[in-house]
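B., you asked whether I could sanity-check this one before it goes into the benchmark set. Here's the sequence:
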Amino acid sequence: MERSTLQAINAARAARRAAVVVTDLSDGASQVFLEGARFPPEWDGLIVAALRSGRAGVAAVEGRSLFVNVHLPPPRIVAIGAVHISQALAELATVAGFDMTIIDPRTAFATPERFRAVELLAEWPEDVLPSRPLDRYTALAALTHDPKIDDHPIRAALEARCFYVGALGSRKTHAARVERLGQAGVPTDAIDRIKAPIGLDIGAASPAEIAVAILAEIIEALRRRDPTGRAGGAR
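And here's what the prediction gave me:
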């Protein structure tokens, strides 16, 4: 691998930005493309598919044999609320390959005894997020039902263009949330990205079932996101 290629990959990794390396197998020449950049039209579909799937492979394009290698930031889930759903989601997220952080200022809920396998921060989200910024490879799940805790990270996630933003609550609860966010100056098209009620509609009832529905919706959003940035990013 050329030094310039390695430097570009390392810079992308440090910035939690995806990179795709396309190598012409006939001469070994490589090019690096970063997520959100313009891709050569003849390679566009190939690169977009790699960014969505995270899988490397060989492809033939216009008579050329190409090896496409993709470097994706580790996807992560930030759950707001140390609730029963978060306990189940923490176990599932690890199995599915997601890093996970739980944030909740309520120390009665945010206890190490309840959350042993994931990072737990018993602090207010607005105190945590400046030093741990959200990004396009983060899914945010707001689960407390408390606007004082949930609203700030939801706004931060929309501003950071997280690939997934979901919030617990009924349609009535979400309607009130939409009104608050609008009054706070959040654009309507950003608010429309919030998945609420959170999770795929599978008839989930228990906290564990709701966690399954949430994780499934997060995976769907990750694999079907627009990695080009041309349509405004994740939806």
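One thing to flag: The chain has two domains: 3-71, 76-224. Otherwise nothing jumped out at me.
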